[in-house]
Every structure is written in C-alpha cells, then in structure tokens.
Design goal:
Elements: H1 3-11, H2 15-23, E1 29-30, H3 31-38, H4 42-54, E2 58-62, E3 65-68, H5 70-85
Length: 89
C-alpha cells in the first residue's frame, strides 16, 4: 500500500473534509463558498483544505478557488459506491 493512498484515505476520513469534497464535486468553489456550505470558521476550514491539498485530493484552480483533482473525484465516487452498499440501520 502506497503512502499516497494512506494519506488520501486518512484525509477523507474526517466528516468536514468529506463535506468539502462533496461541495467541490459539481464545480470548483471559492474559500467563501466552502465556508458557507460547510459552516466552518476560517481557521478549521483552512486546516481541512490544507490536509486535502497535501493528500492530493483537491488543488487550487486559481487564487482562492479550489477543485477536485482526478484522485479526489475517483475517491469520492468510490466512497459513494461503498456507502450505497452499506446496510441502513
């Protein structure tokens, strides 16, 4: 198992980071838009964005705008497929 895979899985293992990935699934988003969609304050949002960037799941599209990378898109689809197969309790 590669270190990159472990880092990506660890990064998306936090509920707020998943919310950021989902928010970016349809279109790139600005920092302000991500703050609005996640309800996070500036400091925690910056931390989570940084973790997603370091893991290669999101990247800056232009200044203050982020988008999913190919790996981010792929991992988000994989998570959705896994979630669809889980039993509902």
């Amino acid at each position: 198992v590669s270190a990159k895979l472990v880092a990506a899985l660890a990064a998306c293992g936090h509920v707020q980071r998943l919310r950021i990935l989902i928010a970016l699934a349809c279109e790139p988003g600005t920092y302000a838009l991500l703050q609005k969609r996640t309800g996070l304050d500036a400091g925690p949002l910056y931390h989570h964005i940084n973790q997603l960037r370091l893991s290669g799941l999101i990247a800056p599209k232009k200044r203050n705008t982020y988008e999913l990378t190919g790996a981010g898109r792929f991992l988000l689809v994989a998570i959705q497929l896994l979630a669809a197969g889980l039993p509902v309790r």
